[in-house]
Write a structure and sequence with these properties.
With 258 residues, the chain is of the alpha+beta class. The chain is 40% helix and 13% strand. It contains six helices and eight strands, in the order H-E-E-H-H-H-H-H-E-E-E-E-E-E. The chain has a three-stranded antiparallel sheet. It starts with 17 loop residues before the first helix and ends in a 13-residue tail after the last strand.
Length: 258
């Protein structure tokens, strides 16, 4: 058979098969491309993206690995907040907390120094002449007349205070002997008045000098009436009353009614 009648053996381009025609293209595709000619490569010198030998950017089409990673990230469930919190607390070191500082006790009020009339008169008389001279009051009265006037004014004030505090103490003592000491409202009101006037009520026989023993026998005491002391002068305004009783019956010595 002649070669002209067998087209598969023809050496011309018209007699080539499809595999023979695609072979040069596959060989060209498998040809290794230099790094400098690859599109999308980062230049080590300038840090820019190289366009490649053909002048085109690298294709942004995701690969199979990127597609699978995106699918797993979309289907993954977020960790619960409590679990994350426990993990953070377990990783972070626990700092010891300092114990709270103990509360400071309030400072006690300073003790009031008792005031007596002679000391007060002496201090006023010593300061009045200098005050009059600074005020340019004119003629200053003699020291004897000045002392007499100051003494009279101070003693009158002390007498007025003693009379007023004595009446208040008598009213409180009378209410104290009543059932329930006059009721809660009366007790609270009288306590406020006594505090404002500087009167201290003694309802225990601790200060024996402020009480008078009236009757009874025994070594224990029963309180019949409280004692009242003026905190301004330190003097007893109204003496309290005690009654002697047997030690086994000493159950009302703290100010409660018999």
């Amino acid at each position: 058979m002649s070669s002209s009648k067998n087209p598969s053996r023809s050496t011309g381009s018209r007699g080539r098969s499809a595999d023979q025609k695609a072979a040069p293209r596959k060989a060209a595709a498998r040809k290794r491309v230099d790094k400098a000619d690859r599109p999308g490569r980062i230049c080590p010198a300038c840090g820019g993206v190289q366009p490649g030998a053909e002048g085109r950017a690298k294709s942004s089409k995701p690969t199979g690995l990127r597609i699978r990673q995106a699918g797993r990230a979309a289907t993954a469930r977020p960790a619960p907040a409590a679990t994350a919190k426990r993990a953070d607390s377990a990783a972070a070191p626990v700092e010891p907390t300092a114990p709270p500082a103990p509360a400071e006790a309030p400072a006690p009020a300073p003790a009031r120094v008792p005031v007596d009339a002679p000391t007060l008169i002496k201090g006023i008389v010593e300061r009045v002449p200098a005050a009059l001279s600074e005020a340019a009051a004119g003629d200053v009265p003699p020291s004897s007349a000045l002392t007499a006037a100051v003494r009279k004014a101070v003693l009158d004030e002390f007498r007025t205070r003693a009379a007023f505090t004595g009446r208040v103490a008598e009213m409180d003592a009378l209410l104290w002997t009543q059932p329930d000491h006059g009721g809660p409202a009366v007790r609270a009101s009288m306590a406020d008045h006594l505090k404002a006037l500087g009167i201290r009520r003694l309802d225990t026989p601790d200060q024996a000098e402020a009480f008078v023993v009236t009757e009874g026998t025994g070594e224990a005491f029963e309180l019949l009436r409280p004692a009242y002391v003026d905190e301004l002068t330190g003097k007893v305004i109204l003496a309290g009353q005690l009654r002697r009783i047997a030690p086994d019956a000493a159950q009302h010595t703290t100010g409660e009614d018999a």
